[in-house]
Design brief:
With 428 residues, this protein is mainly beta. The chain has 3 domains: 1-79, no CATH class; 85-271, no CATH class; 288-425, Beta Complex (Endonuclease - Pi-scei, Chain A, domain 1). The protein is built from 3 helices and 34 strands. It has helices at residues 21-25, 303-309, 365-372, and strands at residues 84-85, 91-93, 107-112, 117-127, 132-141, 146-156, 164-168, 172-174, 182-183, 196-197, 206-212, 219-224, 236-240, 247-250, 252-255, 258-261, 265-271, 288-289, 294-296, 299-301, 313-317, 322-326, 328-336, 339-342, 345-348, 353-355, 359-362, 377-378, 384-386, 392-394, 398-401, 405-412, 416-419, 422-425. Strands 1, 4, 5, 6, 9, 11, 18, 23 and 32 form a 9-stranded antiparallel β-sheet that branches. The chain has a 4-stranded mixed β-sheet with strand order 3-17-12-8, with no helix packed on it. Strands 10-7-13-14 form a 4-stranded antiparallel β-sheet, with no helix packed on it. Strand 27 (359-362), helix 3 and strand 28 (377-378) form a beta-alpha-beta unit. The longest helix is centred in the last third of the chain and has 8 residues, at 365-372.
């Protein structure tokens, strides 16, 4: 309970338990007011949230504190919340490894005559509605789609806590033929080993590295080596509560008896003969038009809002024949010109939808099978599509949607989701 905002307060309990500085912030007898400067060098069980900026920091000059401290500085002050973070998140033994994806995140190479770029980023978001810290990681190049992957740290007892995140890194740049082709990291990224508060409204802080090349700047690389300690060069993140008494760090992976720490970085952009589309197989064909809203815990939302907030997604559990709110695992956003309009649903020709009895169908089943090894039925007028409200809607029209459009697909824990209230497949 916060210290009262007026009247008498004391170091101990002489003025009452809800007027006690030590009762709220910790500490044992004998007490001294100078122990409670907000300088971070606490002992004796004292813990003061960094957000309580009304308490003087102290301004220690090597001999004494120069800031004045008064009992009134503690009016309304609250001690740190008592809670806990999940005990594991980054740590893994063997394969597969957790997010951020070791071997995938931070590794991208492109050669092109069209302004080649490659980059990688990681950001954090305090999803208070679901009692978790969400992490978004992304690796991309200028020829591929935007791809985002999500993982989560749960917490309890931290309803209003201000969480922090930091990254320890030492990424090296190479092959610089002119200035400005490497952002190591980009401006706005926190300095190495420096905490920044995690936003409750967007992915922030965000660490972002990228490289680019041109005809006058033919090649550029960024890299970070492996390491067997947390202080290695690879980016190594820590999430903590406001006073860093509750922390979780990673990623770290143990394989064949050896533990490595952090995520490797290997970004390369070269000007030259163009390679094929970036990433394995290029961007996906299987996508939904960006205008199609997704059913989330917050209602109908645009994919662009979902990308920045990663809410839980409504999906269909065919084993229990019920809708379920499940975690978002990934998003791909890419341009396509092979779309159709099926009633009020806009999607690529090979994107499967679910018909009556959970039957999978698409406009072009041969493409669905060729691209994704999904044996889909032929979608036709008269078929009945599954809707979010449990009803079936008869298909009355299937028409070509001309032009190139921004499209998306997303991965959920049940590998499906509702787009414009129709049940569609994830297939990432």
């Amino acid at each position: 309970m916060p210290i009262e905002s007026s009247g008498a307060i004391s170091l101990g309990t002489a003025a009452g338990t809800n007027r006690s500085i030590s009762g709220e912030l910790g500490g044992s007898e004998p007490h001294a007011l100078s122990e409670y400067y907000r300088d971070g060098s606490y002992s004796d069980g004292i813990s003061i949230p960094a957000t309580e900026t009304g308490i003087p920091a102290g301004n220690w000059n090597g001999y004494t504190y120069t800031d004045e401290i008064r009992f009134s500085d503690f009016y309304g002050v609250s001690g740190p919340e008592t809670g806990s973070l999940a005990s594991t998140w980054f740590t893994s033994t063997g394969l597969p490894v957790p997010q951020p994806r070791i071997g995938f995140w931070g590794n991208k190479s492109i050669t092109s005559t069209s302004s080649p770029q490659a980059g990688a980023s990681v950001g954090f978001y305090n999803d208070q509605a679901n009692d978790r810290i969400a992490m978004q990681d992304s690796t991309y190049d200028s020829s591929a789609s935007q791809t985002y992957n999500y993982s989560y740290i749960s917490y309890t007892g931290y309803a209003t806590e201000t969480f922090q995140a930091k990254c320890q890194y030492a990424v090296a740049a190479g092959n610089l033929n002119s200035s400005g082709c490497a952002n190591n990291p980009t401006s706005g990224s926190p300095a190495t080993n420096t905490y920044a508060n995690i936003s409750t409204s967007s992915y922030s802080p965000l660490w972002h590295w990228n490289v680019s090349a041109s005809s006058s700047n033919t090649s550029c690389t960024l890299s970070a080596s492996t390491g067997t300690s947390p202080s290695s060069a690879r980016p190594y993140w820590t999430v903590a509560n406001s006073v860093a008494t509750d922390t979780l760090s990673g990623p770290e992976t143990t394989f064949s008896g050896t533990t490595t720490y952090g995520n490797s970085v290997s970004l390369s952009a070269s000007y030259g003969t163009q390679q094929g589309p970036g990433g394995p197989g290029g961007g996906p064909d299987i996508c939904i038009h960006e205008d199609m809203l997704v059913s989330t815990q917050n209602g109908q939302e645009s994919i662009h809002d979902i990308k920045n907030k990663s809410p839980k997604i409504w999906a269909w559990n065919n084993e229990t024949s019920t809708r379920e709110l499940v975690n978002l695992l990934g998003i791909i956003i890419v341009n396509h010109d092979n779309l159709y309009t099926v009633n009020n649903l806009k999607l690529t020709e090979d994107h499967p939808v679910y018909l009556k009895d959970y039957t999978v169908a698409s406009v072009n089943p041969s493409k669905t099978l060729e691209n994704y090894e999904i044996d889909a039925a032929q979608l036709a007028v008269g078929d009945e599509m599954m809707k979010e409200d449990g009803t079936l809607e008869t298909i009355t029209s299937i028409e070509v949607l001309s032009g190139e459009h921004v499209t998306y697909t997303l991965k959920t824990e049940l590998s499906n989701f509702y787009a414009n209230n129709y049940l569609v497949d994830s297939e990432i």
